Amino acid sequence: MIRNLSLLWRGRVRSLLQFFCVVLVVCFGLILSSVARAQKTQWQPAHPRSHWHAGHSWGPPWNAPVAHSESFYVGPSKIEVDFGPGQIDLSTRQVMRWVKNAASSVATYYGQFPVLLDRILIVPVPHAAGVLSGTTWGDVGGDPAFTMMRVGQHTTVEDLNRDWMMTHEMVHTAFPTQKDSHHWIEEGLATYIEPVARVQNGLLPAKKIWWDMMRDMPQGYPPPGDKGLDLTHTWGLTYWGGAQFCLLADVSIREETHNRMGLQDALRAIVRAGGTINHNWPIKNALAVGDRATGTHVLEDMYAQMADHAVKVDLPKLWKELGVVRDGEGVRFDAHAPEASIRRAIDAMPKSGRMTPKGFTPGPVRGATVQMVGQPGKA
Ligand SMILES: [Zn+2]
């Protein structure tokens, strides 16, 4: 049961629609602006399957040409970073630091990197700037997880340090692939966990992500005609409705377990049980594994309530209980709020500690952006 949170119900029970299963997790159509977190408000989801078929003789992106490769390990997991041909005004070392920061954040959140092999393809995009888009697939090209990141030629060190997409894409490896109707859980998890994982890994201040959540979460309010998360496929509901589900689940699990466990424990259990992107699981199976780990029914109950009903989460009440207080263009924390300890537990370093590649200390990418001219294949 979900306590202390008001859920307003609208709509009627509808039968579930059947959708064809696709082995894709897509986060494409990420249109960038100067402020990384605000970028999410500008996402225009494109249809992925029309994007990667056209115009390439090599076929799908996992068959695209590779100019050079690097790799590193986080625990037993290998992260292979392939660079497509083309120029980027950054050194390979700088790009690798960006990837290692993201891998470290995700491994710290999950207590391990979710899959044993994650292949990242960096595709330089001529004359563009910034991290342009990321798309992740499970079980393609012989790899359990494959991510294509399109990176503009004139991307700067500051762009890499502002970027959230690399972490978001790696979070996608940590949940079993879902039918299209449940795409919201894949995007909701990535949207909610990416900033939390970066705070836990010391790469973002907590106040920033709670402000971002306060500002951005209302985009997940029920749109007109909303029939619930499984039946309504707007961008806002998919990303931010999904993120609301995750936040609410996190708080509810912590309420029910006297703050001994949270969503993180449920998600770790799903990964440990093999629920990663290279496997297709029915959503109910994944949520049941998560609930068993926390000894609650939060995930299954919330899914039953929100899958085919419009639910408006009372966000202002939630912020108040957690002690997140608007303060100009940011927030301050109210340590005396009834659930301040839950807020602190959500973004605290997990007991399992920081997980990093050997000898690597997470931190900002440093050094000047270098203008490299006429060296195709270098990145
Ligand atoms: Zn995504």
Briefly note the structural class of the backbone.
alpha/beta
Helix content: 25-40%
What is bound: which ligands? zinc ion
How large a portion of the residues is in β-strands, by DSSP E? 15-25%
N- and C-termini, Cα separation = 51 Å
Q: SSE order in H/E notation?
A: EEEHEEEHHHHHHHHEHEEH
How many DSSP helices? 11
Spatial shape: globular
What is the radius of gyration computed over CA atoms, rounded to a whole number of angstroms?
A: 20 Å
Low-confidence stretches: 1-54, 373-379
Strand order of the largest sheet: 2-3-4-6-5
Biggest β-sheet: count, sense, barrel? 5 strands, mixed
- Number of strand elements: 9
Mean pLDDT: 87
Query: How many structural domains does the protein architecture include?
Result: 2
How does this model look, in words?
- There is one protein chain.
- The protein is of the alpha/beta class and 379 residues long.
- The protein has two domains: 7-20 and 221-347, no CATH class; 37-174, no CATH class.
- 34% of the residues lie in helices and 15% in strands.
- It contains eleven helices and nine strands.
- It has a five-stranded mixed beta sheet, with helices on one face. Strands 1-7 form a two-stranded antiparallel sheet.
- β8 and β9 (331-333) form a beta hairpin.
- α1 crosses α4 and α8 runs antiparallel to α9 (298-306).
- The relative contact order is 0.18.
- Zinc ion is lined by residues 27, 168, 172, 187, 190.
- Zinc ion binds at residues 27, 168, 172, 187, 190.
